[in-house]
Specification:
alpha/beta, ABC transporter transmembrane region fold, 6-stranded mixed sheet, 4-stranded antiparallel sheet, 10 strands, 63% helix
Length: 575
C-alpha cells in the first residue's frame, strides 16, 4: 500500500534526499554542542582558561548557526516533498476517476470520493511535510546521543534499558486503540460531506418543502458522530504526551539521583553529568519526535488505504478488445442482452433484449417508470457493460470499438441535464471544442434554443452559473440537445430530454431533427406517446423485458401495454 503511494514521489526524490541531508547534518552539529559545553565546564572553567572558553564558545555558535541554516533548508525541502506528493496523488486519483465506468463509480459514494481526493490526501502530504524531519532526525539523535551517553558513563546509561521498554509498551497500546478510530473518523467525514452535498444540490427542494429543520437534524446527527469519533481518537492521541513526560521525568530523576551520588564519591565530574543530561534530553526529545511520527503515520495509513482502494480499482470498461475502427452508419443491434448492476444481484435489470435498428431510423422507447429504459440506452455507448449477450453497432460488437471513438459517435442527452459554470458558448463547445459561431447557431436552431438565446443579455457569452441556475428546465434541456448535436454524431439518444418542453416546441424540435439530420439514428425515450408516435419503430419495455415493437398504429392495434398507456394519457388530456 505505502509502496504504491510513494511511487508518486518520483518527481520529488531530489528534494527528499536534500531534506535527509539537511536533517542529518543539522543533527550532527547539534550533537557536537554538548561535547563542546562539557569541555568548557571541565577544562575552561575548571582551569580558568578564558581563551579556551571563548574559542569553544565560538565553535558552539558556529555549529548552532549551521544547524539553524540546515534546519531552514530541511523545512523548505520537506514542504516541497509533501505538497508535491499530495498534488501527484490528487492528479492520479482524478485521472483514475475519469477511467471509471458508471459501475465503478457506484462502488464509492460521491461524497467519499471527494473526501479521498481532499482530506485523505491532505493527511498524507502533511505527514510527509512534517514527518521527514523527525523520521530522519530522531534515529540519528537517538543512536549518536546514546553512544555519547555510554561513552561518558556506561553505568549511568543503563537507566535507558528500563525507560525505553516502558515507553515502547505505552506507545504500542495507544496506537493499537487509536488506529481503527482514525478509519472511522474518515468515514464520518464522508457522511458529513454526503449530507452537505445532498442539501446544497437539492436546496430548492428543501426550501420548497420547508424541510430545513429536518436537514439540520440530519446534519447534527452525522456532525455529532464525527465529533464523538474525533474526540475519542484525539483523546487517545493526547495520551502520547503524558506517557512521554512520565518516562522523561522519571529518567531525569533517576539520572540525577545516581549521577549525583557518582559526583559526590568522585567517580564522575560535574561537566560529565551536565553533558550526560544534555544527551539524555536529546535522546528523550528524539523519542518524543518518534512517538509523534507514529501518531501521524497511524492516521496516514488509514488515509493511504482509502486512496489505494481508488487507485487499484480496476475499470470495468477498457479498450482491451478494441480495434482501430470507427462508427460509420449508426446501425444498432441488441442480441439476447441481459444486464444487472452487480454480478451477485439475484435478478436481471434487463432480460433477453433483442431488436435491430437500421441506420437513420427514429426509434421511440416507452414504458412505465422503472422499466429500465435509461439503462437500456446506457449500454450502447458502454456507460455500463452488458452482463450477457451482445450489442452491435454497424454489425460489430461494441467492445471492438475504442471507448473514446464509440462515445464520440453516440451523443447522449441524459435524463438529468447538466450545465457547467462558465459561458453558454463554453458549455455548447463541450460538443465540439472548435465549433464556429455558425455551427453554434445551427445547432441551437435545430434544438429551438435560438428562441431564448437572442433574448439573453450577452447571447452566447452569457454566464450560466453553477449548474445553469439562470435558465429554466426547458431551456436547459434544449441547450443540452444543441450541445449533443454539435458532436455531429451517428447516433443521437434523447433520454426523456424534452419532458420540460411544451408540446409545440417538442414537435418543432422533432421536425427539425428529421429534416436537417435524416441520416442520423435517433433514439427517443419519452413518457408521452405524442413524443414518439411518429417514430419508425416504438419499443415497449415492462420490468426490463421487451414486450412489443412496432409502429404507433401496429402497437395500438395489438399491444395491451401500449394501449393502456395511450388510453391513460388520452383521458388525462381530455380531463
Amino acid at each position: 500500500m505505502l509502496k504504491r503511494i510513494f511511487s508518486y514521489f518520483h518527481s520529488y526524490k531530489k528534494y527528499g534526499f536534500l531534506t535527509v541531508f539537511c536533517v542529518v547534518s543539522e543533527s550532527v552539529f547539534e550533537l557536537i554542542i554538548p561535547l563542546l559545553m562539557a569541555d568548557i565546564v571541565d577544562i575552561g572553567v575548571a582551569g580558568g582558561d578564558k581563551a579556551y572558553i571563548f574559542r569553544k564558545g565560538l565553535q558552539m555558535v558556529f555549529c548552532a548557526l549551521l544547524a539553524l541554516i540546515l534546519g531552514i533548508g530541511s523545512a523548505r525541502f520537506a514542504a516541497v516533498c509533501g505538497q508535491g506528493l499530495g498534488a501527484e496523488l490528487r492528479k492520479a486519483e482524478y485521472e483514475k476517476l475519469q477511467s471509471f465506468s458508471f459501475s465503478n463509480i457506484d462502488h464509492f459514494r460521491v461524497s467519499s470520493l471527494v473526501t479521498r481526493l481532499t482530506s485523505d490526501v491532505t493527511n498524507i502530504q502533511n505527514t510527509v511535510s512534517s514527518g521527514i524531519r523527525p523520521v530522519c532526525r530522531s534515529p540519528v539523535m537517538l543512536l549518536v546521543a546514546t553512544g555519547m551517553a555510554f561513552s561518558i558513563n556506561k553505568n549511568l546509561a543503563l537507566v535507558f534499558f528500563v525507560a525505553l521498554p516502558v515507553l515502547g509498551f505505552l506507545l504500542f497500546q495507544i496506537i493499537l486503540h487509536v488506529r481503527p478510530l482514525y478509519t472511522k473518523m474518515q468515514v464520518a467525514i464522508d457522511a458529513v460531506n454526503r449530507i452537505v452535498q445532498e442539501n446544497l444540490t437539492a436546496v430548492r427542494v428543501v426550501k420548497s418543502y420547508v424541510r430545513g429543520d429536518y436537514e439540520i437534524e440530519k446534519f447534527d446527527k452525522v456532525n455529532a458522530d464525527l465529533k464523538n469519533t474525533s474526540e475519542r481518537a484525539f483523546r487517545l492521541t493526547a495520551m502520547n504526551m503524558p506517557a512521554m513526560q512520565f518516562v522523561m521525568y522519571g529518567t531525569i530523576l533517576s539520572i540525577l539521583r545516581f549521577g549525583g551520588n557518582m559526583v559526590h564519591v568522585g567517580t564522575m565530574k560535574v561537566g560529565e553529568l551536565t553533558g550526560f543530561l544534555s544527551y539524555v534530553m536529546q535522546i528523550l526529545n528524539s523519542l518524543m519526535m518518534m512517538s509523534a511520527v507514529f501518531m501521524m503515520l497511524t492516521r496516514s495509513l488509514a488515509s493511504a488505504k482509502r486512496i489505494t482502494e481508488v487507485l487499484v480499482e480496476v475499470p470495468e470498461i477498457t479498450d482491451a478488445d478494441s480495434e482501430e475502427i470507427a462508427v460509420e452508419r449508426g446501425e444498432i443491434e441488441f442480441d439476447h442482452v441481459y444486464f444487472k448492476y452487480k454480478k451477485e444481484a439475484p435478478e436481471y435489470v434487463l432480460s433477453d433484449i433483442s431488436f435491430h435498428i437500421e441506420s437513420g431510423q427514429t426509434i421511440g422507447i416507452v414504458g412505465q417508470t422503472g422499466s429500465a429504459k435509461s439503462t437500456l440506452v446506457q449500454l450502447i455507448p458502454r456507460l455500463y457493460e452488458a452482463t450477457e449477450g451482445c450489442i452491435r453497432v454497424d454489425g460489430r460488437p461494441v467492445r471492438q470499438y475504442p471507448v473514446e471513438h464509440l462515445r464520440d459517435a453516440i451523443a447522449m442527452v441524459l435524463q438529468k441535464n447538466t450545465l457547467f459554470s462558465g459561458t453558454l458558448r463554453e458549455n455548447l463547445r463541450w460538443g465540439k471544442a472548435d465549433a464556429t459561431d455558425a455551427e453554434l447557431e445551427e445547432a441551437c436552431r435545430i434544438a429551438c434554443a435560438d428562441e431564448f438565446i437572442d433574448r439573453l443579455e450577452s447571447g452566447f457569452d452569457t454566464e450560466m452559473g453553477q449548474g445553469g441556475v439562470n435558465v429554466s428546465g426547458g431551456q436547459k434541456q434544449r441547450l443540452c440537445i444543441a450541445r449533443a448535436l454539435l458532436k455531429n454524431p451517428k447516433v443521437l439518444i434523447l433520454d426523456d430530454s424534452t419532458s420540460a418542453v411544451d408540446t409545440a416546441t417538442e414537435a418543432k424540435i422533432r421536425s427539425q431533427l428529421a429534416e436537417k439530420l435524416p441520416n442520423m439514428t435517433k433514439i427517443i425515450i419519452a413518457q408521452r406517446i405524442s413524443s414518439v408516435r411518429h417514430a419508425d419503430q416504438i419499443l415497449i419495455l415492462e420490468d426490463g423485458r421487451l414486450c412489443g415493437m412496432g409502429t404507433h398504429e401496429e402497437l395500438l392495434a395489438s399491444n395491451g401495454i401500449y394501449q393502456e398507456i395511450y388510453e391513460s394519457q388520452k383521458e388525462g388530456a381530455e380531463l
